[in-house]
């Protein structure tokens, strides 16, 4: 056998890390990188957070897995806390964001089935969306690069342009069950939906008897400075999917639902083997201990302002590299005038990790626990990276 034993589905950076400390990753060669990728918005409390480490190791010494054949006390506790912190009445735990979205889509279809409208199974989605990598969620996202080569697109998804609420309204038909949208697109380029658009979608769903689903996998759990991003718009969905930050690095997702939306999800109609396992529940509860503590989200909003001010100054200085600063809280994006891969690589040269996204954007996703000093250090490195990306290429002199 030649080459790696792994699927060649990742274009990995030539970096390998052996440990992390808060906002920092330490590579195998000893170099320290300031981590403003956070595992793509996953490591919400940074690396090796002592409260999370303690929760996981204590639980690991007791019980790892029993399956949902039995009561799991940590599940009940985490569910009750998520309900208390959100619009929801019910929670279904998963291992990932894609699974949480699958649950939300199934819940919406089941809602209409038990309501006597089984023909209602279609979901309207928006251009630029990313909802996961399963056959259903790539169909929901609608991006050709993810659909190509996997056979016919899964039935039941209709897409309109980004923020084209008029088109979504016109597309509603007798088979439409739900509208699915990210309050802030992450993979799509850190593109926030205007509050008035989210409110209008709520009004349309109420009028047409549809369910409104928010994908908060990337923007939820404190990432924007509110527990869930849709709170900025003062609008609530019927269903929402969360993941990433709720596990702080441990695989964990959840589908949140109102009582009405979840009414059809009775015993046996949906399930999971690993979802809601004791290890994940211990970590999820530990994450909430921190994120829901008094003043924590206020601090996220304050740190966001500090970052935005610094990024605005860099944009002024390097307008040939930086076109726009986007985002909310600590979900921020730099829309580039140069290829975003060039800026991402320049930042990596400065030992700052960031994440490319659609629409030629570089995402900045620091841990929510990042310090002011680390933000200032990151801004210095972003300035240096922008200067590197701005510099004209050196052309060798003719001999």
What does this structure look like?
By secondary structure, the protein is of the alpha/beta class. The chain contains twelve helices and 17 strands. It has helices at residues 38-41, 50-60, 73-85, 97-114, 135-141, 144-147, 165-171, 195-208, 278-291, 296-317, 340-349, 372-390, and strands at 17-21, 24-27, 32-35, 90-94, 122-126, 157-160, 176-181, 184-185, 191-192, 211-215, 239-242, 253-257, 322-328, 331-336, 352-353, 355-357, 361-364. It has a seven-stranded mixed sheet with strand order 4-12-11-10-7-5-6, with helices on both faces. The model has no long low-confidence stretch (mean pLDDT 96).
Tell me briefly what this model is:
With 399 residues, this protein is an alpha/beta fold. It has helices at 38-41, 50-60, 73-85, 97-114, 135-141, 144-147, 165-171, 195-208, 278-291, 296-317, 340-349, 372-390, and strands at 17-21, 24-27, 32-35, 90-94, 122-126, 157-160, 176-181, 184-185, 191-192, 211-215, 239-242, 253-257, 322-328, 331-336, 352-353, 355-357, 361-364. The protein has 2 domains: 17-48 and 294-390, Alpha-Beta Complex (Aspartate Aminotransferase, domain 1), CATH 3.90.1150.10; 63-291, Aspartate Aminotransferase, domain 2 (3-Layer(aba) Sandwich), CATH 3.40.640.
Per CATH, which architecture of the largest domain? 3-Layer(aba) Sandwich
**Domain count:** 2
Count of β-strands = 17
Strand order of the largest sheet: 4-12-11-10-7-5-6
* 3D shape: globular
> What is the mean pLDDT?
96
Biggest sheet statistics: 7 strands, mixed
- Stated plainly, the CATH topology of the largest domain is called Aspartate Aminotransferase, domain 2
Instruction: Provide the structure class.
Output: alpha/beta
How much strand content do the residues show? 15-25%
- CATH class descriptor of the largest domain: Alpha Beta
Number of helices: 12
Distance between the termini: 45 Å
Query: How large is the radius of gyration?
Result: 22 Å
CATH homology-level superfamily of the largest domain: Type I PLP-dependent aspartate aminotransferase-like (Major domain)
Which series of helices and strands comes N to C?
Answer: EEEHHHEHEHHEHEEEHEEEHHEEHEEEH
- The percent of residues in helical segments reads 25-40%
